Task: inverse folding
């Protein structure tokens, strides 16, 4: 489990995270929802130790996050970080050379699942295929937790559906997924837990099934109540 306990972050005098706490369990998809500037990316960066936090703590499976955590977690940013002149095959080879946890079998499976061609250059890919290649590179790593920043951002309906399908498949298996998204409609049925943020604070945190069964509300219903 990833436990975020009361983290605080300031940029200059501006408090961008103000005592944020939530948990993300293994085997579940947890979704961070919030309007632009709510603090979603800053939380992801804090979990990956890419930005220092001022107060609070972040634990993974009971231990404070540190350099050993990188064996267990990966961050898939909203844009592919590979050089444009690389082919998908080059990018996969790069990952294989640099990451112990590269799972070649899963990478090949993802390649055919997304119908990507190894020989295609990153620069020649459509936005949707670039997002899929980006996901492939992260999902093929044998880690327990996957952090994904806006995997659906700016891509067409069919690509979004295909990406959503991967979340429901064995390719994610029993790993813990923490995702930020605005495109809640495509994955609402797949999400186990929602954390709604505004202005650096958690407004509400709930399990989607409980919300549906006990209050008869969808995630979008709760979003309307909370943000409007
Ligand atoms: N390097 C930085 N320097 C100063 N302020 C920053 C920096 N990075 C982020 N911020 C501010 O921190 C706040 C939270 O930003 P963050 O990117 O985490 O939000 P977000 O919820 O991910 O937004 P978006 O949906 O637009 O990606 C915003 O007000 C942003 O302007």
Result:
């Amino acid at each position: 489990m990833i436990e975020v306990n009361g983290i605080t972050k300031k940029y200059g005098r501006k408090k961008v995270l103000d005592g944020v706490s939530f948990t993300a369990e293994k085997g579940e998809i947890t979704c961070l929802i919030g309007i632009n500037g709510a603090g979603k990316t800053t939380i992801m960066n804090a979990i990956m130790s890419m930005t220092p936090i001022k107060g609070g703590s972040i634990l993974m499976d009971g231990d404070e996050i540190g350099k050993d955590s990188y064996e267990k977690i990966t961050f898939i940013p909203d844009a592919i970080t590979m050089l444009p002149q690389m082919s998908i095959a080059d990018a996969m080879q790069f990952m294989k050379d640099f990451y112990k946890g590269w799972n070649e079998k899963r990478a090949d499976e993802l390649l055919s699942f997304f119908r990507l061609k190894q020989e295609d250059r990153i620069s020649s890919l459509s936005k949707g295929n670039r997002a899929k290649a980006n996901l492939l590179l992260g999902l093929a790593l044998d880690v327990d937790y996957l952090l994904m920043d806006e995997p659906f951002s700016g891509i067409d309906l069919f690509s979004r559906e295909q990406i959503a399908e991967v979340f429901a498949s064995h390719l994610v298996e029993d790993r813990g997924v923490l995702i930020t998204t605005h495109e809640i409609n495509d994955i609402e049925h797949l999400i186990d837990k929602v954390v709604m943020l505004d202005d650096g604070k958690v407004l509400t945190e709930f399990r989607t099934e409980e919300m549906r069964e006990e209050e008869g509300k969808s995630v979008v219903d709760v979003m309307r109540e909370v943000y409007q």
